[in-house]
């Protein structure tokens, strides 16, 4: 047993040393001109730009997926063109996303993941090349949805329960993306949560460290343009509350 473990340790140490001795290329060469994509169903297509800021020619591959293993990306009702593009150094490419016209829910906004992967040239000897993938959300927005997406964060329903759990429900048709949610009473921090998205009709339970009665809820939401907007509300056990936007000073 001891000999087996010793051999494994030696093998792992050798592998780590070998990796350290290799020249590793892991710096992204591509820059994308947006951080999220909004696809209104009324539009025939949407697009994004890719720029090769590296000093070598690369291939760029783009595809959509749902983020779950249950859905085959090839069966999504979208076409990306070009799906693979060759970019010289300082080269630019406009990539189009085209909806087939059917196959997506029409009663609510949907979210897909756009993947943009840099495929490096064939690696030189003793060089470890890494294909770098960037991901961003694509929000597909059907026609005729009720409400205004800009007001969706204010429509979230927050309710503090006696067991120190904060319940939040999204009754609207749009996703709400939050980069931070906090609850504070005086100097006591009761909740500090990062990166939370709540889908249409979804409910979440957020446990607090102690009683949140009388605490102040704050969260930062991301709008369609990637900007951050602050919202705030007071919490009272057993009562439903909705946050209001905090205007910049």
UniProtKB/TrEMBL annotation:
Subcellular location(s) of the protein: Periplasm
GO CC annotations on file: outer membrane-bounded periplasmic space
Q: Which UniProt keywords apply?
A: Chaperone, Periplasm, Signal
The primary site where this protein sits is periplasm
**Where is the Pili assembly chaperone C-terminal domain positioned along the sequence?**
168-229
For biological process, the GO terms are: cell wall organization
Q: Which Gene3D superfamilies match?
A: Immunoglobulins
Write the signal peptide boundaries: 1-28
Pili assembly chaperone N-terminal domain span: 29-145
Q: Which InterPro entries match?
A: Ig-like_fold (IPR013783), PapD-like_sf (IPR008962), Periplasmic_pilus_chap (IPR050643), Pili_assmbl_chap_C_dom_sf (IPR036316), Pili_assmbl_chaperone_bac (IPR001829), Pili_assmbl_chaperone_C (IPR016148), Pili_assmbl_chaperone_N (IPR016147)
PANTHER family reported for this sequence: FIMBRIAL CHAPERONE YADV-RELATED (PTHR30251:SF2), PILUS ASSEMBLY CHAPERONE (PTHR30251)
Which family is this sequence assigned to? Belongs to the periplasmic pilus chaperone family.
Name of the protein this chain belongs to: Pilus assembly protein
According to its UniProt entry, this protein's organism is: Pseudomonas caspiana
Recite the lineage of the species: Bacteria, Pseudomonadati, Pseudomonadota, Gammaproteobacteria, Pseudomonadales
């Amino acid at each position: 047993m001891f000999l087996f473990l010793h051999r494994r340790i030696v093998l792992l140490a050798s592998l780590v040393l070998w990796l350290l001795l290799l020249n590793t290329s892991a710096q992204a060469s591509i820059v994308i001109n947006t951080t999220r994509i909004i696809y209104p169903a009324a539009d025939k297509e949407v697009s994004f730009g890719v720029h090769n800021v590296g000093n070598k020619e690369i291939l760029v591959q783009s595809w959509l997926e749902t983020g779950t293993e249950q859905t085959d990306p090839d069966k999504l009702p979208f076409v990306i063109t070009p799906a693979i593009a060759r970019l010289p150094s300082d080269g630019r490419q406009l990539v189009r996303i085209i909806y087939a016209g059917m196959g997506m829910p029409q009663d609510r906004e949907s979210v897909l993941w756009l993947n943009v992967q840099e495929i490096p040239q064939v690696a030189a000897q003793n060089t470890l090349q890494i294909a770098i993938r960037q991901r961003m959300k694509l929000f597909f927005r059907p026609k005729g949805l009720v409400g205004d997406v800009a007001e969706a964060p204010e429509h979230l329903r927050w309710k503090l329960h006696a067991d120190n759990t904060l319940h939040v429900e999204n009754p609207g048709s749009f996703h709400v993306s939050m980069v931070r949610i906090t609850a504070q009473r005086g100097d006591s921090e009761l909740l500090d949560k990062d990166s939370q998205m709540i889908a249409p009709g979804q409910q979440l339970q957020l446990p607090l460290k102690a009683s949140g009665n009388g605490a102040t809820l704050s969260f930062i939401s991301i709008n369609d343009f990637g900007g951050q907007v602050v919202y705030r509300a007071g919490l009272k056990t057993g009562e439903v509350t909705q946050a209001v936007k905090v205007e910049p000073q």
